[in-house]
Design goal:
The chain is built from 8 helices and 10 strands. With about 240 residues, it is of the alpha/beta class. The strands form 2 sheets. The chain has a 6-stranded mixed β-sheet, with helices on both faces. A 4-stranded antiparallel β-sheet has the order 2-1-4-5, with helices on one face. A hairpin with a 2-residue loop joins strand 9 and strand 10. It is globular, with a radius of gyration of 18 Å. About 40% of the residues are buried.
Length: about 240
């Protein structure tokens, strides 16, 4: 399998001196085409930091971050933004929707910024909204939606177009169980179609959708497997 995402010896240090905090400590991690990887661990273990660095939203203190062979560390801010529009789909915990844009406009925006025609971007956006089950809300603004509906718009924005890497930070947090399972099924289908996916979750039942589970603690990978049951690994990581 080809590695769509490859982190090598990545560290992230916040602050300096006595206030120095090591969020990641020499992490090496890969996600391959066709693979969904779940990342688990207690609060403060470095899960969200790993995701923001993988998505080019933050820079590591040291190490390499490759997406489809391109090292994000060596790119300028504009080049990283272009990579996020074309290759990386990111589902934020806080949605990050633009209040002045409708659902369809929020989803279409990254495609338009990348030079796709308004008409084509809208068609792609409507298909993505249909995939997440809210095509009927295309013309509604975020403030007129529930938290769960906003979450689905955010997920549609992450999967629109030909994203090769999908990063999801607790993507079902605002959704009911049935809708959440449907969204995980969508992420699973995108990976089966050839994308690589990284899912940060606290839920063992959500990690069960993944091919592999990586456990972090104190910024270090403490376990990684695709064979044992998630509950067994959780106990092992705690030990």
């Amino acid at each position: 399998m080809n590695a769509v995402l490859q982190l090598t010896d990545v560290t992230r240090v916040h602050g300096s001196g006595a206030g120095e905090v090591h969020a990641l400590r020499g992490i090496s991690f890969a996600a391959h085409a066709g693979e969904l990887v779940a990342v688990m661990g207690p609060s403060g273990s470095g899960k969200s930091t790993l995701l923001t660095i993988a998505g080019g939203l933050d820079q590591p203190t040291s190490g390499a971050v490759l997406v489809e062979g391109t090292d994000l560390v060596g790119l300028g801010q504009q080049e990283r933004a272009r990579m996020r529009r074309t290759s990386i789909g990111y589902v934020f915990q806080g949605f990050n929707l633009i209040p002045a844009l409708t659902a369809a406009e929020n989803v279409a925006l990254p495609r338009e910024l990348d030079g796709v025609s308004v008409r084509t971007a809208r068609e792609e956006a409507l298909r993505a909204l249909e995939e997440v089950g809210i095509a009927d809300l295309a013309e509604r603004f975020p403030d007129d939606m529930s938290g769960g509906q906003q979450q689905r718009v955010a997920i549609a924005r992450a999967v629109v177009g030909e994203r090769r890497l999908i990063l999801a930070d607790e993507p079902t947090g605002a959704l009911d169980t049935e809708t959440g399972e449907g969204i995980l099924g969508l992420l699973r289908a995108r990976c089966d179609a050839g994308a690589a996916g990284v899912l940060v979750t606290h839920e063992a039942r959500h990690a069960a959708w993944a091919d592999r589970v990586v456990f972090l603690r104190d910024g270090v990978v403490v376990d990684e497997t695709g064979t044992d049951r998630v509950e067994v690994l959780t106990e092992r990581a705690d030990a």
